[in-house]
Design brief:
Split_barrel_FMN-bd, Flavin_Rdtase-like_dom, Pnp Oxidase, Chain A, mainly beta, 7-stranded antiparallel sheet, oxidoreductase activity, acting on the CH-NH group of donors, NAD or NADP as acceptor, 3-stranded antiparallel sheet, Flavoredoxin
């Protein structure tokens, strides 16, 4: 029997996105965001929700750009820190001992130490209540060559991203493969007739 927990933000798992943006003066900043994901195929787009009071909010709207930096498990401590501290009060990237560089296709910083980075042009934004959903058109995806599989695609076990469990308020790592997408379900095709 399932127990009702009422309306809560308990989708499992949620990503750990380090959202990179420049402030109005051009200083690089990173924030930790868990409310996000791919939201469109054509054009390829990703959504991330940001509260208005976050320091990154104005920078994203001002420059109409952001990056989504996917941290691996080795970056768990700085990733968490990026969600605790504000770029309004300190240089979080310097404090974490990490480095940024200018993205190639958009006016936003990318975090050099992250194995996978998505460069986004702000396509639209929607006020939802407590958050504003920023829709970014994906202009490029960059991945460390050491994190590619034999077909040239990112290998999730090599990227080794951290995941967030909102109810537990904890970070986790990816486990083992349980099946091939768009394949394992074929065993049930035609069984309803």
């Amino acid at each position: 029997m399932k127990k009702s927990l009422g309306p809560q933000t308990l989708a499992y798992p949620t990503p750990v996105y380090l959202v990179g943006s420049y402030d109005k003066d051009g200083h690089a900043n990173m924030m930790n965001a868990a409310w996000g994901g791919i939201c469109n195929s054509i054009p390829p787009s990703i959504a991330v929700s940001v509260r208005k009071e976050r320091y990154s909010y104005d920078g994203i709207l001002h420059h109409k750009a952001f990056t989504i930096n996917i941290p691996n498990v080795e970056l768990t401590v700085p990733a968490d820190y990026f969600g605790l501290a504000s770029g309004r009060n300190e240089d979080k990237i310097a404090a974490a001992g990490l480095t940024t560089e200018q993205a190639t296709h958009v006016n936003a910083p990318l975090l050099c130490e992250c194995p996978l980075v998505i460069e986004c042009r702000l396509l639209n934004h929607f006020e939802l209540g407590g958050h504003t959903q920023m829709i970014g058109e994906i202009m490029d995806v960059k991945v460390e060559e050491s994190c590619l599989d034999g077909n040239g695609n990112p290998d999730i076990t090599k990227v080794n991203p951290i995941l967030f469990a909102p109810g537990n308020r904890a970070y986790f790592k990816v486990g083992e493969e349980v099946g091939k997408a768009f394949a394992v379900g074929k065993t049930l095709m035609g069984k309803s007739s």
